[in-house]
Amino acid sequence: MDRLEPLFEKVEDYAKTSYELYKLKTIDKSASILSSIVYGGITIILFSIFFMIVNIGIAIWLGEVLGKMYYGFLCVGGFYGIIGGIVYLFMHNSIKKHISNFVISKLLN
Q: Averaged over 15-29, what is the pLDDT?
């Protein structure tokens, strides 16, 4: 039995080390995914503000050209409604697949 005791100690140390390694890998993956989501969110917010301001400018300009301010906003809104419908009809599955692949790649790397 004295011969097996060092072996049991090594197995116990291996199990503890494996558990710690698993914890660290999980933390690393979680941090990587969270940082990607936060970075993407901040980028989306900044670009959204930029495009919103540009679109308001375009709507005001179109309103002046068309004679009534709300015509410009209706044109810009209609344009984005058409684009949104096209994206939803033709690219819905592609966008879902791209997001799923991103999450899976982050989890597996």
A: 90
Count of domains observed in the chain: 1
Are 59 and 76 spatial neighbours (Cβ–Cβ below 8 Å)?
A: yes
Q: Specify the 3-state DSSP secondary structure of 94.
A: helix
- Are 90 and 81 contacting, i.e. CB atoms less than 8 angstroms apart? no
Alpha helix ranges (H) inside the chain: 4-66, 69-108
Distance CA 107, CA 101 (A): 10
**CB burial readout 47-62, b (16+ within 10 A) else e:** eeeeeeeebeeebeeb
DSSP SS3 for 68: coil
**Pairwise CA distance, residues 17 & 52, whole Å:** 52
* Structure tokens belonging to residue 54: 């540009």
The answer to whether the pTM exceeds 0.85 is no
Cα 37 to Cα 31, 53, 75, 103: the distances in Å are 10, 24, 33, 10
User: What is the residue range of 46's domain?
Assistant: 4-108
